[in-house]
């Protein structure tokens, strides 16, 4: 192989410059060696590691560290190169001279890069990879590499003036520079405004020829699995990598035991080769619930040309030549379409994979840490495991964050989790003039080339809420005729997707309508965001909508108790104490939490009860929404809840809190996303109907039993019917009057069963119901193989002495890292539920019976009526 790679992650330090820099930091920066830096990393996390700041996630430290965003940071390292590695010994053969490039995969954000005192580049984009020729600057012995970062806050302010003001939803003009939007804070996010080398940096050296950009994808062409590779070949030489390639090169493309080759015919410094390989017997890649996510190893190999046949051959065929360069990808064969009809032709919206309509049960994904460099593969695997538990089959990577890592997409490929990646524009108008336009094109090219091989990626989306925002958020007057981003969403991005990743469907925005002149957040067609319920109304009003596809909706709730008390140390801790306010970023968030609670549950005065009430209400609100959207099938084909994860400890819409702990909402998602689910919904003409949703490949049939039951367990009315729901289908039954007509709304409920599926429907809100102490019996025993709780595995059985509504184990209060496999279970008198707990290490069985651990809706109501 002619290409050598050397990571440059060692020996970094940095200094801080600016009037706001604290004296302790200024002194540390002047000490020998300055402040040690970790690469990949950030100034904030380096300051934290050096003991110069406290954890920004705790209490009010965010405010105290605002100086970081207005500070310039200068990073330095020294690395050595020996004479042989420089490779400058062939003046008569430039193709043999060594080419050297510094490759920065991520610089956050505005910086000048220099080597040995020579400026190499001035950069302004966190989302790009920079490849810098250093052949003329690299020298034998020590080489000093410097990255001087400019204050992102000051850079954004100046860029906003230079470009002309564009509306945005933040206290900083994040839309004026190409930094992660939520890095300046969001309505769930901390304002870090930091700087740093946030992705790897390396030195690459080679001679002769090498592979440049490589695009590989598995597709289905006229029913035949087909692998496609589009390969750039680059030559080295004196002209910064633009030397002649010369004759006698070929590219070999290997997939699933077969290979095809093509000659590199151009004599220019960079040539492009396209190869296709049909593999009729290859198995397709399928998303979760539809089949196996089959992946195939592929490789693109640059060789000196051997005997060429131009025909596919077996990989084991011998080659006489040594590979010059090699790029490997794991691919899956699949087709994908995102169909959105105009309203006048029906308005249908549908995601199809391999020609099959997919019911989307999704969640939105944000950066899993405010400092994304801290998110590794193991952490991503943990989060995706929780997503699988919640029945999620699609994750939408939101446009105010980052283009996610290959680890994220690779894990989704393996697990069959579909992915949707926004281009990184969110909740703002964006200038279409230079220098911003070129930055958008460059970062989009990088992202499409890097991510396009992943079979899980089935949607590239132009923006988050910007087209809708221009229509409904009062942008016209402040824009005053300025560009706002339409050229990106309707011209640049679709053209780039068509050029670089035509196998990935494109949508112009979320929400969007296929008719550009129509309202862009309409329920009649396209995708829709539903936020008026959380902001202004109440969650039962989700049933006022009949959307075709909902790509955002949600309800707030606090983090788990363990995460809350780890991050907020107020004494006393109350919903309105100072630290709680810092960790609530939504406008009037606590007011909305209260307004959304009191119609359903009393507002508690006790902090632990407040925490449980808000957590429960969040779960029930979202469960209500998803069950309604699914009950509309096939009219509504998918929903993507806001949001799966958090980036720090905060009251938010997430189902996993900032520490990765399961909130009750995650159990609600598991219930509402069940492949076979029953739900009871009001009919438009009055009465109630049962809807059976069957998102499996086999028909679902059996005896449907509907009972109206008193809270004491007595059956007041009972009806049965032979029921069947087709594979990938839904069926509906209107409940007979005897079952659907309540005698005492405060003391009765409906229980509907079909096989193992059960639905409970209450005729009154919990606060109006005759709920009493459920007299729970809790029995905890070590799980098999976990004698004495060793390993933290427990089986907890909860038996109800009286009706128990939404039984949930808050097991993080037993052990901070414990999690449980269920929650929000309603039990009739005498019924039991069995829960599997993991991670509860070193606890006693009696801890599970603590009243703060096993909670019900009854706790909030009993004795208050």
Q: Which CATH architecture of the largest domain would you pick? A: Alpha-Beta Barrel
Largest sheet: 6 strands, antiparallel
Q: How large is the count of helical segments? A: 19
* Level-1 CATH class name of the largest domain: Alpha Beta
Structural class by SSE content? alpha+beta
Strand order of the largest sheet: 3-2-4-10-7-8
> Between the first and last Cα atoms, what is the distance in angstroms?
78 Å
Cα gyration radius (Å) = 29 Å
Give the percentage of residues in beta strands: 25-35%
Tell me the overall shape.
globular
Q: Do you know the CATH topology of the largest domain? A: TIM Barrel
How many domains? 5
Number of strands: 45
Low confidence ranges: 237-242, 314-319
The CATH H-level homologous superfamily of the largest domain: Glycosidases
Structure, explained:
With 865 residues, this protein is α+β, with helices and mostly antiparallel strands. It is built from 19 helices and 45 strands. The protein has 5 domains: 199 residues, Jelly Rolls, CATH 2.60.120.260; 124 residues, Sandwich (Immunoglobulin-like), CATH 2.60.40; 335 residues, Glycosidases (TIM Barrel), CATH 3.20.20.80; 89 residues, Immunoglobulin-like; 85 residues, Immunoglobulin-like (Sandwich), CATH 2.60.40. Helix content is 19%, strand content 30%. Helix 8 packs parallel to helix 11 and helix 16 packs parallel to helix 17. The chain starts with a strand and ends with a helix. About 1% of the residues have low confidence. InterPro entries: Beta-gal/glucu_dom_sf, Beta-mannosidase-like_N2, Beta-mannosidase_GH2, Galactose-bd-like_sf, GH, Ig-like_fold. Pfam families: Glyco_hydro_2_N2 (PF22666). GO terms for molecular function: hydrolase activity. It catalyses: Hydrolysis of terminal, non-reducing beta-D-mannose residues in beta-D-mannosides.
